[in-house]
Amino acid sequence: MTRKKARSIPVALQSGIEHTRPMPENRDSSPSNALPATEESTGATASPQRRIIKNVSTLMVGRALNAPMALLHTSLAIRLLGAYDFGLVVLLYAFARTLADIVTFQSWQTVLNFGGNALAAEDRSGFHRIIRFSFTLDAISGTVGMGMGIAIAMLGRRWLGWPDSLSVLGPLYCVSVPFMASATPTGILRLFDQYKLISAQSIVATVVRLAGTLFLWVTHGSLTGMTIVWITADVMAATILNLFAVRQLAKARLLSGIFKIRITLRNDLFHGQMGKSFPGIWQFAITTNINTTLTLAFSHIGTLIIGGMIGPVSASYYRIGSQIAAGIAKPAILVQSTLYPEMTRLWIARETGSLYALALRAALAAGALGSALLAAAWLLGGPILKLVIGAHGTDALPVTLWLLAAEVIAIWGLPLEPLLFTMRRIRAVIVARSVDALLYLPLLVVTLGWYGLNGAGPAILAATVFLVLMQLGFVLRMKDRVSSSPDSQTME
What we know:
Order of helices and strands: HHHHHHHHHHHHHHHHHHHHH
Radius of gyration: 23 Å
Shape: globular
Distance between the termini: 9 Å
Strand content: under 5%
Helix content: over 70%
Low-confidence stretches: 1-44, 486-492
């Protein structure tokens, strides 16, 4: 289905702060629909590259604070509980996170794509409907995920390989699922370029876990206490994120009237009005959910498989290795979270040449940085693991290095998936993820059976290389198609 030709992007999408422009002729120009005027940002005319560098730098501040606190928390927790019980906490988190990612619609992407279009057209009513739609999807999916989790934890504990000590803690941890499934606030903050708030919020969960672990250390806490600390961390992080998003909407004078609707939310959700007003929105929301579910194969589902096949201790080592690998590679990975909004802006403005150039520069810059970090990890990985885990730190070193190598390969291809999403080539994203998951999960089971924990690394590296090559093929194919028909912005 072909979208209407996008108009020039207002300052709202260039700098995250709204600016008054004449209303489009085909829109309702009543005061209730017009966007308010606010002070123009000094960064309104900044290039995408400069905004990306600025936003990555901002996020890095949060990561610079977050990484040492996370490692300290992990080190204290594994010494307090032991590798086995800490592995149980990791399995509970992976289970809840898996459920949250399966049910969530990744509504932050819907906010960026369709909410961004509404702001570009200066359509306040349409923007409000997108936000209500996204928040409602978050609430429904989170509730469904919590119910599913409680049922599975109560009835399928043996199938999951959980011990009796998780008979109560398993269902209890599922209370955190609705808070993990909240994605709309992230989309709002990214849309308005509020990376300072995202950076500040990113350390909330780690601060709560560290403070809770210190308290448990003093009071000789148990597995139950640590589980409650982790649940509290997820609840607090989501609460702060929502407060930041509401504050930003109020600051932009977009909060007033957000709950006053001409077309009821029920009609939007269940009577097809949303799809008629915003063609492709349901398909986009559903397919981004499917893509996230498939992405789980590389993260939390892998952790659950490792825990079920070779035990909680291996799951805890895999979690620590993943945490360290992701932490070392994070400076490059952060480029992706800032890249998506910039790609969306260029796509709405129909600047496809600049879009491809931005993707190429991002891949080269992030890939070079990621490769340098991989080299550093060969020297620092062992000492860091011994510091965090103790004498058995070297047990997690091989899988950590494999995981970091996979992260670096993914970094080289990091613009590919956002580029496909931006161009609404959703089918290509799903096909690539589906085929890759079908390769990775059986390969993981086989390599774990052959080599134990050390088999997890080669499996994820091979799958990551395969995924990046598939995505690159789709991007090259779609680039030729879009270049030959620049007015075609269809959902595939």
